[in-house]
Write a structure and sequence with these properties.
Blueprint: E1 25-29, E2 32-33, E3 37-41, E4 46-54, E5 57-69, E6 73-78, H1 84-93, E7 100-107, E8 114-129, E9 142-148, E10 151-156
Antiparallel strand pairs: 1-2, 1-7, 3-6, 4-5, 6-9, 7-8, 8-9, 8-10
InterPro entries: CHP02241, Phage_T4_Gp19
Pfam families: Phage_T4_gp19
Organism: Dactylosporangium matsuzakiense
Length: 164
């Protein structure tokens, strides 16, 4: 028999834990902070299921896990004169996929301490879209980069991205 797990601070009666802010994050590529990103979408994992009927019992349908897939992650960021992400994309365009470990780091309310980290394993640029340009607009020029990856890890604060 195993011992019960200790309760987390969030599970204690009367203990209020504020959720993290969705706007307080940074992106690391191979453990180096890259760009000023405004949005990250697509963090997820899907475990497909296989349904089957037990032999001798046609009324019960069981489900077992099957293939695991990771959707692409889309990054939106302000246009700058840095060519690092563009150069990484161009290696894929030329057929030389340069896989990198990418981390999306959520910061606490102070904006200085790492709270949660998601690691995208063996990521590479899959799509890029430039910003619409409009001489009558006062908005920032925002580019979009989509990354394919082979795995997703979640770590509590203070983690380090896996090395390539």
């Amino acid at each position: 028999m195993t011992a019960p797990l200790p309760a987390s601070p969030a599970a204690q009666p009367g203990n209020v834990v504020d959720p993290y802010r969705a706007y307080n994050f940074k992106l690391l590529i191979n453990n180096v902070t890259e760009g000023h990103f405004t949005e990250v979408n697509g963090l997820g994992v899907k475990v497909e299921r296989i349904s089957y009927r037990e032999a001798g019992n046609n009324s019960i349908v069981r489900a077992i896990p099957s293939r695991v897939t990771y959707p692409p992650v889309t990054l939106r960021f302000g246009l700058t004169d840095s060519a690092d992400l563009w150069d990484w994309l161009m290696t894929a365009v030329e057929g030389r996929v340069n896989r990198r470990n990418v981390s999306i780091v959520v910061l606490d309310s102070s904006g200085s301490t790492e709270a949660i980290r998601w690691n995208l394993l063996n990521a590479w640029p899959q799509e890029w879209y430039g910003s619409p340009l409009d001489a009558m607009s006062r908005e920032l020029a925002i580019e979009t980069l989509t990354l394919a990856h082979e795995g997703l890890q979640r770590e509590a604060g203070g983690g380090q991205a896996p090395t390539a």
